[in-house]
Amino acid sequence: MKALRLFAVAMASATLLSTAQTASAAGDEDSKPPSQTQTTRDCFTERQWDPEIEKYVRFSKKVNGVWDPTLKRCIRPDKAGYLKSDLLEDAVRELAYAGRNQEAQQVLAQMDQTSDLVMTYWGFTHRKLGNLTKARDFYTFAIEKNPDNILARSYMGQGLVAEGNVAAALRQLREIRSRGGQDTWAEASLVKAIATGVTYNY
Questions:
Q1: Is 185 exposed, middle or buried (0-12, 13-18, 19+ CB in 10 A)?
Q2: Is pLDDT at 19 greater than 80 in this prediction?
Q3: Domains held by the chain: number
């Protein structure tokens, strides 16, 4: 284990000197945390717009809705499926980064469940909620659907680091590199997680 850790630190030092590029076979990814928008700035409230009945509804506690830039209203998270897929993806990332993983999952439930990117985010949110077995299952589904999904491999590797399974995390790192993932955020974030034991929350 000590040898593996020293090997990981050496790799981290070399990799983190390079610029982590924004690229992924699974879809667009960003080396920076998601920017805060009205979704998490203004939409964490009991009052949410219901697009089906076209009126505001009030919840018994605060929930985090999704900002609709056209209606300029906070849409309840379980009724936001009519929004464009890129808006939903951004909302999922932003909600998860803010720690609102249950609302992120409500948004995910309205997206294309056959998408390996959606499966990846299901895995990510389950990992952040502490559901490690479910997280691994979703990462596995995503990788089976698209073996070149290096974002799923990075997140899976980070989950393995959190469980103390560095050897398995290193296997995912090798897979990322063998699939063209060198100098990407997927690689750099996993290298840093292996080297430090600290995983990313975006």
A1: buried
A2: no
A3: 2
